[in-house]
Amino acid sequence: MRRYGKNPDEDDIRVRPNPKGNRPRTHTRPKHEDAQEGMVLTVDRGRLTCLVDGRTVMAMKARELGRKAAVVGDQVSLVGDLSGDKDTLARIVRIGRRTSVLRRTADDDDPYERVVVANADQLAIVTALADPEPRPRMIDRCLVAAYDGGLSPLLVLTKSDLASPDELLEAYTPLGVPYVVTSREELENGDAAEGVRALLDGKVTAFVGHSGVGKTTLVNALVAKDRRRTTGVVNAVTGRGRHTTTSALALPLGDDRGWVVDTPGVRSFGLHHVDPSRVINAFPDLQPGAENCPRGCTHDSRETECALDAWVAEGHADPARLDSLRRLLATRERREGD
Ligand SMILES: Nc1nc2c(ncn2[C@@H]2O[C@H](COP(=O)(O)OP(=O)(O)OP(=O)(O)O)[C@@H](O)[C@H]2O)c(=O)[nH]1
Ligand SMILES: [Zn+2]
């Protein structure tokens, strides 16, 4: 029975990334010695499409896994019929330890966090420079979700034919976030795909973006025609006439050059679950300064004893970095329009 959450294809169990890698969460059971490894490409009403040894295999979670869900990007062990033939169904008996988790909560007051994508290296935050207007607060919230979950952020600024990226880029300079700028013309002549692909090479990159920013146009420019969402793996496998899932979908970049994970259902992040200390880990120049903070310090400018002020005053880090960190942490309080 399911009590929480709107999308049964997301994992709503509290998990923490385990950067030290010292506490594996699952164990290989001897009885599944014959299991094969695979990667979850998409999830649709409890049916998981997995890539196993180059084949697309449909699978279900084994009962022994309990409540823990496998999500897109998970490395899983499968048993049963792994032929990938029509009407076959394998069983997922193990979910591998995750190197990163893109999480969201449905609302900031929802204590249950959902993992939407596992093991992505990067989070590409797609923002139009105009039409629709960029929303820096939204970008900041995405950055917090990325830092918190162990993903490296990447800014993809589209529609530079309509407005200049300069002002926006200025705000993100202190964060040192890699970025790429694309325009209508560059989409048409292939330069946009080439420029973005250079940043995706060999990596698993989750793409997020609000409706209308040009995410679909871009993803389609990156991914081979026969693998796109509209006609892609899901329909080929399930035989369903249309794509009904709200799950993320992993699409190969070709020649083993990485994966794009399109996330149609993720347009904003609840940041209820975010632990400021995990965000500070993404700021190695500030992180040592926070060691002198009082327990539970939120590091915002209202904290009179936050040690980061002294850290910056003593010249250990650029004040603009602390301002950026505080701006990001402040986005944890949800406002209208987030
Ligand atoms: N001027 C201009 N328009 C663009 C550019 N990229 C995409 N568009 C247009 O922006 C509109 C929205 O693009 P989509 O790719 O559908 O946007 P999306 O983010 O996927 O939005 P949803 O499909 O609603 O999720 C389309 O009319 C595109 O042709 C660009 O670089 N410049
Ligand atoms: Zn502090």
UniProtKB/TrEMBL annotation:
The keyword Transferase does not apply. It comes from Streptomyces salyersiae. Pfam families: RsgA_GTPase (PF03193). This is Small ribosomal subunit biogenesis GTPase RsgA. It is found in: Cytoplasm. Residues 118-267 form the EngC GTPase domain. The lineage of its organism: Bacteria, Bacillati, Actinomycetota, Actinomycetes, Kitasatosporales. Belongs to the TRAFAC class YlqF/YawG GTPase family. RsgA subfamily. PANTHER family: SMALL RIBOSOMAL SUBUNIT BIOGENESIS GTPASE RSGA, SMALL RIBOSOMAL SUBUNIT BIOGENESIS GTPASE RSGA 1, MITOCHONDRIAL-RELATED.
